[in-house]
Amino acid sequence: MSMRRTKALPAIALVASASLVLGACGGGGGSSDADGGDATVAEMATARGESADGYTAPDTKQSGQVVVSTDKPFTSYNNATEDANQSYNTFALVLVQPGAHITNGNNKVVLNKDVMDSVEVTSKSPQVVTWKLKKGVTWSDGEAWDCDDFYMAWLTQSNAAKKADGTKIFKAAGTTGYDLMTGECKDDQTFVGTYKEPYPDYESLFNSDVLPAHVLEKQTGVADVTKLTPTSAEADLTKVADFWNEKWNGFTKDLMPSAGPYKLTAFEPNQSVTLERNEKWGGKPGGPEKIVLKAIPDPVAQAQALENGEVSVNSFAQPDANAATKLKGLSAQGVTFGAGPGLSFEHLDIQMKHPVLSKEEVRKAFFMCVKRQDIIDKLISEVQTDAKPLGSLIFFPKDEGYKDVYADKAKGDATESKKILTDAGWTQGADGVFAKDGVRASFRISHTDIPRRKQTVELIQGQCKDAGIEIKDDTDPNFLDERVSAGDYDVALFAWSSLPFKSGKKSIYETGGGQNWQNLSVPKADAALKQAVSQTSIADSLKYFQEADEALAGAYGSFPLFQMPNMWAFKGLDRVYFQSYYGALWNANEWQTK
């Protein structure tokens, strides 16, 4: 599973990991649900179609068009490639590309019974997992949604197909889990994964990355993708990879069918994407006839659009204090506001090859001068009053195994920061900035054009100026799309988001990992991560994740700021909940007008 950068998050660099136990935390008034009772915001975290054994879409009252706003635009139908991978694609695709499970607002992972019969460990040694697909599920172009599609997801993300020079053929964002498995189709309805070592997070696979193999076959002239293996002829694999890596960007109707309750029908680059009910969907039809997901980068403008009736739902992957204040003031007009800790965390990644930041004392001094609580008080507390600095790259505060391994490294103390540099032979120049051997303690922080990120950099600039460190602001709207995965930064400010599984962290922090764009290499963490993802149970893996967390903190390479709260607001609908990884549309098929 890959972590996504949330572009505000990033993957939504929002990407890969999340919390195992995170309760819903809602604010705002009640609203009446289908049964005529009042649902609190916290209760909206559970889908109406959930039961003890899985999720099945419920009967839903039909309604017209619903317009939903979020921070950034949809860009790609294939969100599993390293270039495309980000939360805003997931938000749009969750009802178009169904997978084996859904994850609700409480981060509970539930079998998706509209498309699956079962997912079971059918052998423990070696570990074998069998995915049984429900018969009769089709894509919106009439072709079967079946084992070929799972096989292609495994083949393209297993990191096993290499060119003669050793480079990977498929440019997948994350490979963790798929890379431990050999996949095969026993029949059209049965995908079997055999693991070379145990993998506890197998439920994280085949959830938001199952694409139409029949489209790829038709476009590439490959008769049967399941006949390809990672050791097939390089020319054959490259032909398939060229399509998978590049051709599912944006929206092209014939190439991008749906296997879920909604299909994509229109796309305006940088602005909006439109979903309409999929008439080939075998489950219960969705409530809204049409859903328009619209990008409004300015959070206060999003809130204004809800107040004016231009949209019915605001969904902010990027929390914003000013928008929160505005929305909380609209309850008398029937607006419900919700907020709670999400599955993503804001952080600073240091480019370890940078001439200044490659020096450990500069990284240590930088960590020491940043006042995280001050940033939180000014930018986050209005959204979530009890927000605190995050002390881990791998765990969230409510997770079993969480320990704060950054408190002593990040005290927000300019005097101590200066001492670190002075002790290492740096001296303050006439301009107040430390220098040594002709090199100044000066670097850029790069980020997208989200107002809160720019404000974060402004605060850090002031805090670290007092410590003799010069920080330049580098705002680039395309930073998460084009530069972060190329490692084109001194310090990157973004967020990782993920499903409630920790194994996806491996590709971010291991030496040479697919999402390790900062060239970080911590051998002790590599060894611990390898152990963590090969335990048979999640409980057994925790101590290894803790070891990795501590080793990473000691390398001063990545600096967690805070767990990102999600916030959302809505009017005229019965129940809406922002699911931290999948966004507001995770159960939009259940939305009903009030």
Report what the structure shows:
23% of the residues lie in helices and 22% in strands. It has helices at residues 87-93, 147-157, 213-220, 234-246, 299-307, 321-328, 360-369, 372-379, 414-423, 451-465, 479-483, 506-509, 523-532, 538-555, and strands at 31-32, 38-39, 50-51, 54-55, 63-70, 101-103, 109-111, 116-124, 127-133, 181-187, 190-195, 262-268, 272-277, 288-295, 313-316, 336-350, 427-428, 434-436, 439-440, 442-447, 470-475, 491-497, 558-570. Strand 1 and strand 2 form a beta hairpin.
Strand and helix map with partners:
Blueprint: E1 31-32, E2 38-39, E3 50-51, E4 54-55, E5 63-70, H1 87-93, E6 101-103, E7 109-111, E8 116-124, E9 127-133, H2 147-157, E10 181-187, E11 190-195, H3 213-220, H4 234-246, E12 262-268, E13 272-277, E14 288-295, H5 299-307, E15 313-316, H6 321-328, E16 336-350, H7 360-369, H8 372-379, H9 414-423, E17 427-428, E18 434-436, E19 439-440, E20 442-447, H10 451-465, E21 470-475, H11 479-483, E22 491-497, H12 506-509, H13 523-532, H14 538-555, E23 558-570
Parallel strand pairs: 5-14, 5-15, 20-21, 20-22
Antiparallel strand pairs: 1-2, 3-4, 6-7, 8-9, 9-11, 10-11, 12-13, 13-14, 15-23, 16-22, 16-23, 17-18, 18-19
Helix pairs in contact: 3-4, 5-6, 7-9, 13-14
Protein name: Peptide ABC transporter substrate-binding protein
Signal peptide: 1-23
InterPro entries: Peptide/Ni-bd (IPR030678), SBP_5 (IPR039424), SBP_5_dom (IPR000914)
